[in-house]
Specification:
It is a single chain. This protein is α/β, with parallel strands linked by helices. The chain has one domain: NAD(P)-binding Rossmann-like Domain (Rossmann fold), CATH 3.40.50.720. Helix content is 40%, strand content 19%. Helix 1 packs across helix 6 and helix 7 packs parallel to helix 11.
């Protein structure tokens, strides 16, 4: 297959390309910069090389501004626009092609469900409240032109992606390696995590599985409390993990971003992934961390 990817040079996109190429598929990166194996686009200007998308079998849409910083009004606007404008442009362009790709796997996040949700959340759970929930709703809605044109569309609601090369785990490693890591606040927040290998595997599964469409939770089947995560990470690193980080300090440092990400709690389960036949390589936290860090 020939598969076009936005965000293809990011953490998830790079792992996905490696997975696809190892399986014998060709990856085309949709990027703002030209080059071999690239399709040029500029979402802010509403421009994309439409002709270069002709003959593509599948499209994976992972582009979006990093949310891991304090949110000013300008930052929040960039977070929203980088997802909604790019997805809208892509969906409309794909819908206009005479020969359309069979599937669009488009990014979303478990932020769709909001924070501090009780009970287990599967793909049929209602959306939550807050900035990220609103962004995710708009992000998913932006794929409508592709869906209406008959392109099978999957909304990948990604949890906390674990990799030593980026994201939350990479930020946690320095203090934990120094022996000063530990739980956040009371440690009771539920973390819906997933190993990077399984994110790439699940996207590939979504591309190949013809009956799969709509929301798809990209989370491991065994979420953990934050305190359990800290204990497991310290154990794998052979370091103590009893130094807590006060929740109020994170709120002071990062404001709304901390409340909706670092301090959020949601037990999100991958019901559709499992019912559609995906087998997680790392369903449990400790083996996942051992694989990633040792």
């Amino acid at each position: 297959m020939k598969i076009a990817i936005t965000g293809g040079t990011g953490l998830i996109g790079s792992a996905l390309c490696q997975r696809l190429e190892k399986a014998g598929h060709a990856c085309l990166i949709i990027s703002r910069t030209a080059g071999a194996g690239r399709i040029v686009w500029d979402p802010a200007k509403g421009e994309v090389d439409r002709d270069a998308l002709i003959g593509v079998d599948a499209v994976v849409n992972l582009a979006g501004k990093n949310i891991g910083q304090r949110w000013s009004d300008a930052t929040k606007r960039e977070i929203r626009e980088s997802r909604v404008e790019g997805t809208t442009l892509l969906a409309r362009t794909l819908a206009s092609l005479e020969t359309k790709p069979a599937v669009l796997v488009s990014g979303s996040a478990i932020g769709y469900y909001g924070s501090q949700r009780e009970g287990e959340l599967t793909e049929d759970a209602a959306s939550g409240e807050g900035f990220l929930a609103e962004v995710c709703q708009e992000w998913e809605a932006a794929t409508a032109p592709a869906e209406e044109a008959g392109i099978r569309t999957v909304h990948l609601r990604t949890g906390v992606v674990l990799s030593p090369d980026g994201g939350a785990l990479a930020k946690l490693l320095p203090p934990f390696k120094a022996g000063i890591g530990g739980p956040i606040g009371d440690g009771k927040m539920v973390m819906s995590w997933i190993a990077l290998d399984d994110v790439a595997g699940l996207i590939y599964h979504a591309i190949k599985t013809e009956g799969l469409s709509g929301a798809l939770n990209a989370t491991a089947p065994n979420p953990v409390a934050n305190a359990e995560f800290a204990k497991a990470l310290g154990g794998v690193l052979g370091k103590p993990s009893a130094v807590p980080t006060p929740a109020f300090a994170l709120k002071l440092a990062f404001g709304e971003m901390a409340e909706e990400t670092i301090l959020s709690s949601a037990c999100v389960l991958p019901a559709k992934a499992q019912s559609s036949g995906y087998t997680f390589a790392y369903p449990d936290l400790k083996p996942a961390l051992e694989h990633l860090l040792t």
